[in-house]
Protein 1
Amino acid sequence: MDFKVAEPIIQALHNRVDHGVFGYPVEQLELREIITNRLGHLYNCRVSPDALVFLPGLVSGFNLVCHALTLPGDGVLMQTLVCPPILSAPANAHLTRDEMELTPQPDACYTIDFDCFEATITPRTRIFILCNPHT
């Protein structure tokens, strides 16, 4: 702009920069309570608000999990059909990727062959990445 901004606007911007969080405007504590209450109400699932970790996206989350919970050479079990960036997560952490193909149904849904799923688990399998194929 060609003129100095009003002091209250400058102060508000300083406060936001000092806060350090530039994402969603809802305070994280409030958002944590909303999420945990909803999990309890809809699914009877009790989760501590402190157990929630906010990440910038699904793909970065899968990559983080692969790095955090495994060692190079460990295995990751994935059900395919999932998007390619998710399929890359194990290799990004120097892991092996074991795939178990989901079974397509006439209604465009997928089912799990649990015998095949169990057979795909190996001694090196450390994590299972579950992702809806419709994401």
Note: The chain has two domains: 7-51, 58-129.
Protein 2
Amino acid sequence: MEYRKPSEDAVRYWRTVRLITFFTVGAISLAVCLLMNLDVGATWKYVVLTLIVVINLYNLTALILFPKIEYMQWGYLVEEDRVVIRHGLFWVDKDIIPVIRIQNITVSQGPVMKQYGLFQIEMALASGKFTIEGLKQDVADEIGENLKNRLYSRLAAREDEK
């Protein structure tokens, strides 16, 4: 099984999303620090400031290291009867989605993805949603059409059996 990778622009997209998170959490942290000048106990100030430092260090690490590691882990495979998605950061999960169980296929693009020309495919099942992200438009459209055609052909074959 040879897994296909998302576009390399996905790393830049993930970094941008994490950068937005970093600045948002940083702004909230600054507001909390400014509010800490109110009359609260010294112990609570140290606890809150330590927590703020730890959270911001984690977000900085997530911004620098995690996208590259995530890209190395990410992979997807579209087979005749199933879609396999391998993803994760510390623990790698492998989702196996039977094509016959797919109820809806959506190809979409968010505002940050648009900056990098990336799309995602979301497959809705009765049990939940599964996403392949970081795809160029031609690849996303090809996978979406391919899955739709496989689903229709499997449904037609099922009807012929009845």
Note: The chain has a mean pLDDT of 89.
Protein 3
Amino acid sequence: MSNVDVQIALPKGTTSKMLIVDIKTKSIKVQIKGQPEPILTGELCEKIKAEDSFWNVEDQQSLNLNLEKASEAIWKTVIVGDEEIDTKKVDNSKHLD
């Protein structure tokens, strides 16, 4: 898996123009303009290719983040300090077509 997809619930009616999304190599920040607190902010558990990562708003109620990994590895979590998954339970087999 070369990317991580993250979906974040937004207040209904939120448009992309209302958001500040700052994706960096090792950190991310998502904030609604004019709001004092970000919806999401923190250090990413692994490095990403910020220039190849993108985001969009779906149905004016959720934010989809597509983070392109700098190296192919299974992430235990997205943001440092969040709950971690057991990486031994992840199916990382590759299908050859």
Note: Residues 59 and 67 are 20 Å apart (CA to CA).
Protein 4
Amino acid sequence: MGQTTFSGPIKAGTVSDTTGTAADGKKANVGSVVMAQSVAWEQTTTADTGMVIPANSQILEIELLITTAPSAADLTIGNATGGAQLGTTLALGTTDDIVLKFSAADTTDLWADVGSSDVPVWVTSSTGTAGRGVLTVSYIQGNDIALIA
């Protein structure tokens, strides 16, 4: 299967700029395409996933599809060895064939905007080596939004 790559965010829609009212069909309706990166995950103490989230991206979801039951442990996800900058305390349990997601309580402010530099993705589990699966990060690339204080 062929693949296509782009160097920037992908936008889709028919009206880029608002030039009228909703009734006349001239309201902007362009939105960003949601991007995702996935990697094979193996339960180890600390690992660089090889994923890099582009600068100014908004993270929408981080999930782990567990295909082989892990040893009971917690997973943190960050931008450096042993870091928890992107998510903390995802309890892995000891079950396979499930999808675990970081909840709002586990996330950090970097989800709103990862900042002006690309962000590498590292994972750390507290114990064990048995678990296997697929780690996926979904995000909107280049969604540099101004947060309301």
Note: The chain has a mean pLDDT of 86.
